[in-house]
Structures are given as C-alpha cells and as structure tokens.
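ok posting inputs for the 3-isopropylmalic acid job
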Amino acid sequence: MKRYKVVLLSGDGIGPEISEISIKILNRLSQKYDFHIDIKEEYFGGIAYEKHKDPAPKATLDQCKACDAVLLACVGDVKYDNLPRQLRPESGLLKLRSELNLFANIRPIKIRKSLLDSSSLKKEIIENVDLIVVRELIGGIYFGQPRGQITNTKIKKAFNTMIYDSNEIERITEVAIKIANQRSKNICSVDKSNVLEVSQLWRDTVLEVTSKDKNLNLRNMYVDNAAMQLIMNPRQFDVILTSNLFGDILSDLAAMLTGSIGMLPSASLSNSGPGVFEPVHGSAPDLAGKNIANPIAMALSTSMMLKIGLNEIEAADDIEIAIDNVLSKGYRTSDLDNGNCQVLSCSEIGEKIIKEI
Ligand code: IPM
Ligand code: MN
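and the output
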C-alpha cells in the first residue's frame, strides 16, 4: 500500500472548519483506494503566533519540507493587523512560500455548469470559461529589496521595490509553457511594460523563452487591459502568465467569474520538493465559527494535492465529480445562494460531498 505524508496547516478563521471536511474526504478516499495518508497538523499563521510568537515556526517549516505535500487552509485575522509586519500571519505565508521555493502558483478558474447563475456576470459571458492563472510567487514587489519606511523626514515616506531577474522570469515561463502545451497552447503574458522597466524585462524574457517552442501562441497584454478583458470576454484566455502582484489581483478578479471566491483552489509548486495546496480565499474571520463557510475551494485544493502532489489522479477526479454532483442537486453554501437552491451549512455540504465519493 502506498503511504503519503501530508502536513495540514488549518490556520485561522474558517480554516479549521473547512479543513475538517478535507480530512474526512481524504479518509474516505484512502478507504476507497489503495493508499494511506498520514495527516500531521502543525501550527501556522495567527494561531502559531499565539502559541509560539511566530506565524511560521521553524518546527512547522521543517515538517513541511520533509513531507509529500502541504495542505493549507488560510491565515489571518484583523486582530493581528497591528503587529509588526514580520509577526503577521501573512508574513508567515510568504515565508513558507519562500522557504519551500514555491515560485509557481497555479490558479485554475473553471466555471461549473450548475453555477452559471451564481456569478455577478451574465451567463453568456462566463459559459465555458476555463483558464489558468500562472502567477510568479516568490519574487517581484512582494519580496523586492530595498523596502521600508522613512520616518525621519518632514513628510513620511514608504517604498517597495518591484524587481525580477531574467532567471526568475524564465523559470515561471517554463511552467506556463508546460501547462499551455497540455491545453490549447495559448499563453497571454500580463505586464505593465508601457510604464515599468521590470515589466519590459518580463516581456522580453517571456518572448525569448516562448519563441523556442514554435507550437506556442504568445500574446502580451497590459495588466489594466487584462482586468477589463477578463470581465468583458473571459473566454479569450487560456493560460495567463504574470508576476506576483498582478497575479494576486487578477486571480481574485477572475475568481468572481466562478460565482464565489469560495470555489477557487490553487497549487504552489517548486521544481523539487513538496507543493503547497491552498484555497485562494482568505480566512474570512466574519464567517469563522458559524459553520457557514464554503468548503469547496479547500476540497478542490485537496483534489489538486492528490493530482499534482501525490499523483493519485482517480482519487483527485472523484472529489471534482462529487462536488459537481452536489452542486447539480441544488445544494449550496450561502455565498452561492441565488434564491433558487437549498442552502446548507459548511459541515452539511461536506457530508453531501463525502457521500458522493
Ligand atoms: C493570496 C493572498 C496572499 C497574497 C496574502 C494573504 C499574503 O492574498 O494568496 O492571494 O497576497 O499572495
Ligand atoms: Mn490574493
């Protein structure tokens, strides 16, 4: 029997509630298939700060580095907003990404047929949307040095640095090429090269790397236009390749095509070593403890973990199919309520999903 070691970081806010469902799903799948998943939970985020005064304790990071895959729910709470930046839950997340060298963040945006009416956009616009945002995750303005505040001047100032070297751009472009080659071979690279030097290097490097592959079709788009095009005609996109900050913004925007950010999973990958699989949504402190959160993005992240991280393709597909079945029967969490469905709690919809597996 195959055995896998998974580290679970359930984090803050709705994290524990949605994690509980993914644990049950994984247990169900290990009964059904010939594998065993050893799930080890570790402190991470705000809860780790409470326990160890560190949002990403070394013990947690060491466990993450030594496992087969990391399943992460979400971190953060307004109550940590006034902590020094390096102690905030978000900084813990950035540290995890950086320590595990997770330079490639994959965010698939696929419209589920039964949710066509749940988006704020018209059905005709979002029908058949199926795109992937490939976001560079450990560079750019999120990590660029120097950064800081200048307080000894008359007017307060603060600054960050948006910086990439060509190696960082090359390796994320390679990931986008690999994904595009399994799909329609179309890449749209998003930048702001009409204004930023760093984007000019991005554009030049992406062109250089992609032009080695004659089957690929590359388009470039400025990020402001990309935001507009994603709302106007999202079907034109297949693989969107972009930098850390632009990818952060565009993926939330694209999430709304699906009806709710509660539907979006992601995978963060390096070239070797375990990946981190996590929903795109945050910790939603206002929903925490009420058993009303949508556990589907977490369940879909679990599916991505099985597929990409553990190569258990059938089990991964089972989760997707189960979710589609539950949705097509009209069951929803409240974020997807269109007045025409049966609204269930987080744990109830979890049970429905498990029953379908
Ligand atoms: C995301 C989140 C994070 C990011 C935050 C929580 C640091 O918004 O994964 O998209 O900005 O990358
Ligand atoms: Mn984000």
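notes: The two ends are 20 Å apart (CA to CA). Residues 15-32 form the longest helix (18 residues).
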